[in-house]
Design goal:
By secondary structure, this protein is α/β, with parallel strands linked by helices. It has a single domain, classed as TIM Barrel. The protein has twelve helices and nine strands. A six-stranded parallel beta sheet has the order 3-5-6-7-8-9, sandwiched between helices. A three-stranded parallel beta sheet has the order 1-2-4, with helices on both faces. Helix 4 links the parallel strand 6 and strand 7. The radius of gyration is 17 Å and the shape is globular. The model has no long low-confidence stretch (mean pLDDT about 95). Bound molecules: fe (ii) ion (FE2). The site of fe (ii) ion (FE2) has 5 residues, from loops.
Length: about 260
C-alpha cells in the first residue's frame, strides 16, 4: 500500500486537476498503481494562488464524498505545497498554510528556482523550534540545489526532509533531475518519493516505476519501498521519520551503469 504526499488532485484550486471528473480519473490511476492514500497539496501562499485552509478542507470533503459514492477506495488527506516565504509559523497558526494532513507537524515546502531569500535558514530554524518540519518538494528539480549539493546536506542536518518526484527518477523530467535524484538516493538524502501529479494525462499519479528504479539505485529494495510507505505514513501521522545515515553510495557509479 503506497502513500503519495504531493498531488494536485483537488479540482480548480491551482494548475492541477481542472475538474472533478479529472480528479476522479487521477484517483482511479492512483488506485491502479497501488496508491491508497493521497495528500491533496494545492499551491498556496504563492503569487498566483492563496488557498487558505478552509477552502482546502471544503474541497477535500467534496472529493472524499464523491470517491465514496463511486466506490473508489482512495483516502484523501488535506495539505498544501507552500512557496518558501517569511513568517511561516505565524501563517500556519493563522490557517493561511495547511500542514500535511493538518497535524501541524510537516509542511510541504517549495524553494524558489532562482535565488533563495537571505533569511531562509532562520525561517526554517524558527519552524523546527516549534516542532514543524519542512518536507522540501522536489529538490532534484531545483537549479540551485543541483549546483550546490551541500545545501541539501545542510538542510537535512537542520531537520528538513527531502521529497523526490517519481517522474524525475524515471527520467521524464530531464537528465539533470534524474541524475540529481540518483545522487540523493545513493547518498540516502531522500526521504519520500511522491508523484507531484497535476493531471490524468502528462503528470499522472504513478509511483511504482520510480520505486523499482530507486531500489536499484539504493541497492536496497526495502529502503526504496519505505520512501512510499513507512516514511510518508509517519509524515501524515505527524510522527518522526526514520532517517538513514547520509553517506557515501553503497556502490559508486550507478549513473554510468544505468
Ligand atoms: Fe507540486
Amino acid at each position: 500500500m503506497m502513500i503519495d504526499i504531493h498531488c494536485h488532485i483537488l479540482p480548480g484550486l491551482d494548475d492541477g486537476s481542472s475538474s472533478l471528473k479529472q480528479s476522479l480519473e487521477m484517483a482511479k490511476q492512483a488506485i491502479g498503481d497501488g496508491i491508497r492514500v493521497v495528500a491533496a497539496t494545492p499551491h498556496t501562499v504563492s503569487s498566483a494562488y492563496s488557498n487558505p485552509i478552509g477552502e482546502i478542507r471544503r474541497q477535500v470533503a467534496i472529493l472524499r464524498e464523491t470517491l465514496e459514492d463511486m466506490n473508489i477506495p482512495l483516502e484523501i488527506c488535506p495539505g498544501s505545497e507552500v512557496r518558501l516565504c517569511s513568517r511561516m509559523a505565524e501563517r500556519i497558526l493563522k490557517g493561511e498554510i495547511t500542514t500535511l494532513n493538518d497535524t501541524g507537524r510537516y509542511i510541504l515546502m517549495e524553494f524558489p528556482d532562482h535565488g533563495f531569500p537571505d533569511d531562509y535558514e532562520e525561517e526554517i530554524f524558527h519552524l523546527t523550534l516549534r516542532g514543524i518540519f519542512p518536507v522540501i518538494a522536489h529538490p532534484e528539480r531545483n537549479f540551485i540545489f543541483q549546483e550546490q549539493k551541500e545545501l541539501v546536506h545542510k538542510l537535512v542536518n537542520a531537520g528538513c526532509l527531502m521529497q523526490l518526484t517519481a517522474m524525475s527518477i524515471t527520467g521524464d523530467m530531464g537528465e539533470d533531475a534524474a541524475n540529481f535524484s540518483y545522487y540523493l538516493l545513493e547518498h540516502r538524502l531522500a526521504h519520500v518519493i511522491a508523484t507531484d501529479a497535476h493531471s490524468d494525462k502528462h503528470r499522472k499519479p504513478i509511483l511504482s516505476k520510480a520505486v523499482e528504479i530507486a531500489g536499484f539505485v539504493m541497492q536496497d529494495r526495502q529502503a526504496a519501498q519505505d520512501l512510499v510507505t513507512l516514511n510518508p505514513q509517519a509524515i501524515l501521522s505527524g510522527c518522526p521519520v526514520k532517517r538513514l545515515e547520509p553517506g557515501k553510495p553503497k556502490k559508486s557509479g550507478f549513473i554510468h551503469r544505468w
